[in-house]
Amino acid sequence: MAVVLAACGGSTTGPAAGTTPTAATPSPTPVVRITFHLAGDSTMGEPIPERDPETGWGENLQDLFDPGRLQVVNYSKRGRSTRTFLSEGYWSALLPNVRAGDWVIVQFGHNDGSIDEEQTPPSEYRANFTRFVADIRARGGLPLLATPIVVRRFDSRGALQDTHGQYPDIVRSVAQSTGTPLLDMQQISARLVTEYGVEGSRELYQHLAPGQHPNYPGGLADNIHLSPTGARLLAQRAAQTMKAMNLPLAAFLL
């Protein structure tokens, strides 16, 4: 029972005559702010000034989430595969920062399956994704797997060509076998690129005319890395898909 002082400085052992005890005002429930950790390659985004205006789609995610409730932290590294993200210590640097209730999205594939890089065998690629899921859950975090975005490559008929082979299906398989939600960025990006068409989709990637940007005085035709426009649109499509999936993470979207 609340203690109320008597009007004339009398006894404090009970309420003054004619008064009603007041209940203590409850403290407001603190807002829990979680972190959305991003692990991936350059298509998810590592801001590098000398690579401007190249933008990863993950660089736009914070603009879509309530910053008072969720913070996006991007650990993505350019040119990394699942193998090198692990072997070079980037995963071990991310993992201790994962707290219970945090989300971690993992998207690799461009460099794992590239003939220009040190290719990750499919069996190792599967094992690495399985490890990512287990490590995140061991920290009390919530994993979200993502397939790699498409490369802008069309055949002679104007149809978008697949360049990733079996690697996206491995991610889908790991997601299914481990009961992990899947953000199918390959399909999401394929729809976006197809909508824009052969010529229009140049706007989504790093296509620059000579003299258009000081980093590329001779121009650039890059069909792998996104432009600021492509990154922004793809982040918006990803957020829309999270909502459509009824992913709990979507509750933090603006």
Would you mind describing this structure in some detail?
This protein is α/β, with parallel strands linked by helices and 254 residues long. It has a single domain, classed as 3-Layer(aba) Sandwich (Rossmann fold), CATH 3.40.50.1110. It contains six helices and seven strands, in the order ββααβαβαβαββα. The strands form two sheets. A five-stranded parallel sheet has the order 2-1-3-4-5, with helices on both faces. The chain has a two-stranded antiparallel ribbon with strand order 6-7. α3 packs parallel to α4. The protein starts with 33 loop residues before the first strand and ends in a 10-residue tail after the last helix. The N terminus is likely disordered.
Strand content: 5-15%
Supply the number of structural domains: 1
User: Largest sheet, order of strands side by side?
Assistant: 2-1-3-4-5
Elements, N to C (H/E): EEHHEHEHEHEEH
Class from secondary-structure proportions = alpha/beta
What is the residue-averaged pLDDT? Answer: 90
Number of continuous helical runs: 6
Low-confidence residue ranges: 1-21
Terminal residue distance: 43 Å
Helix content: 25-40%
Gross morphology: globular
The CATH homologous superfamily is named SGNH hydrolase
CATH class bucket: Alpha Beta
Number of distinct beta strands: 7
- Global Rg: 25 Å
Q: What is the compact description of this entry?
A:
It is built from 6 helices and 7 strands; from the N terminus they run ββααβαβαβαββα. Helices cover 29% and strands 14% of the residues.
